[in-house]
Design brief:
The chain has 407 residues and is α+β, with helices and mostly antiparallel strands. The protein contains 20 helices and eleven strands. Among the domains are: 111 residues, 2-Layer Sandwich (Beta Polymerase, domain 2); 31 residues.
Length: 407
């Protein structure tokens, strides 16, 4: 039995960046031997075990063969005869197909170390094209390592293009796709993820609504970058620079989908794009089964982001309606995330990245004024039921009017 550290742990050590997850591969062992040493089995499809003390994953060396469509369409074969090189060749990228023993001796049959030096994301073998999930994975790695100068090798991009054209991407489950998308959006440069998907033709298959934004003009006075797709990528980039959570990043990606539906004769204006975009945001949410908080914020930001930008001009009654829509009394955090998304939208414009956004504090102040209305005095005055609701609304409107006058 020989044990090797593999994949990301080896790659990141060689890159000199912190190692988070450690995976191990075991050559020359059987399931019975692993169980005898106290390892706990966890893999349903292939033999993966948890170490009895560290809890780290140990997998038996295995080969795989394509047997159906999609990410799950593979037959695995694990046995003591499978070599380390045979195990490594089924991995996605050369930089993930290196192994080292306990003395840090490197096994690198597919030249991953050279590709690390050349800053290339290159596939290990033609079998790369058998797994559609790898299109998303490579785009995610491109987003993660863009800051270090990594790009996708042209030959790998060509295989990704073939996968996008083959119809195999449609075989991916919503859960697997969302796992990759959500991880990619939380990288330092999530806009690169979208760019790579677009470059290989996968974006128009997976998110045609986002792909449709490229080439759609906006008024240059408000959007010096003009192109709506370019603007969307800039907004996403800003959300990462400001270390915002996944909910906000997802909303930033989808906020302008309605502009993709504007008839060309109306360009570059996009009247009511906030409302036309809602059905598209809903469709994307459902396609990937995004978590509820991501879905809700994306729809709210899509509908109300222009309200955010015009906050200082809104009538008190409109401002109150906005606050009610977000349920700022019970869910203050969601309104904070909305404000953040609006600010990223304002900053995601060429040359305006550092511009101040006074609307943010103004909206916070309005929410605080509305929240400051005490219910107890109204109860003491005898209000109850629907009448109480109306009385609270009146007092909140009064509070917002007073706030607006003094702001």
């Amino acid at each position: 039995m020989q044990i090797y550290k593999v994949g990301g742990a080896v790659r990141d050590r060689l890159l000199g960046i912190p190692v988070t997850d450690i995976d191990w591969v075991v050559v020359g062992a059987t399931t019975e031997e692993m169980l005898a040493k106290g390892f706990r089995p966890v893999g349903a499809d292939f033999p993966v075990f948890l170490h009895p003390k560290s809890g780290e994953e140990y997998a038996l060396a295995r080969t795989e063969r394509k047997s159906g469509r999609g990410y799950g369409g593979f037959t695995f074969h694990a046995s003591p005869e499978v070599t380390l090189e045979e195990d490594l060749i089924r991995r996605d990228l050369t930089i993930n197909a290196m192994a080292e023993d306990d003395q840090q001796n490197l096994t690198d049959p597919y030249h991953g170390q050279q590709d690390l030096k050349d800053r290339l994301l290159r596939h290990v073998s033609p079998a790369f094209a058998e797994d559609p999930l790898r299109v998303l994975r490579v785009a995610r790695f491109a987003a993660r390592y863009a800051g270090l100068g990594f790009t996708v090798a042209p030959q790998t991009l060509e295989l990704m293009r073939q996968l996008a054209d083959s119809g195999e991407l449609q075989a991916l489950t919503a859960e697997r796709s969302w796992k990759e998308i959500s991880r990619a959006l939380m990288e330092d440069q999530p806009q690169i993820f979208i760019e790579v998907l677009r470059e290989c033709g996968a974006l128009k298959v997976l998110m045609p609504e986002v792909d449709a934004l490229f080439g759609v003009p906006q008024p240059e006075a408000h959007h010096p970058e003009i192109d709506t797709g370019v603007h969307t990528l800039s907004v996403l980039q800003q959300s990462a620079l400001h270390k915002l959570p996944l909910t906000v990043r997802w909303a930033c990606l989808l906020h302008d989908l309605g502009k993709g539906l504007t008839p060309t004769e109306e360009w570059p204006r996009h009247i009511a794009h906030e409302h036309t975009g809602l059905k598209l945001i809903k469709a994307v949410n459902e396609r990937f089964k995004a978590p509820k908080d991501c879905q809700e914020l994306a729809l709210l930001v899509g509908q109300y982001h222009t309200h955010g930008h015009r906050a200082l001009e809104l009538k008190p009654s409109t401002l109150l309606e906005l606050l009610q829509s977000f349920d700022v009394y019970r869910r203050p955090q969601r309104f904070e995330e909305f404000i953040a998304a609006c600010e990223m939208d304002a900053r995601g414009r060429k040359g305006l990245e550092q511009r101040s956004y006074p609307q943010a504090d103004y909206l916070r102040g309005a929410a605080a004024a509305a929240r400051g209305v005490a219910v107890q005095p109204l109860l003491e005055q005898g209000f109850k039921g629907p009448e109480l609701g109306e009385a609270i609304k009146r007092e909140r409107l009064k509070a917002i009017k007073a706030y607006k006058e003094h702001a």
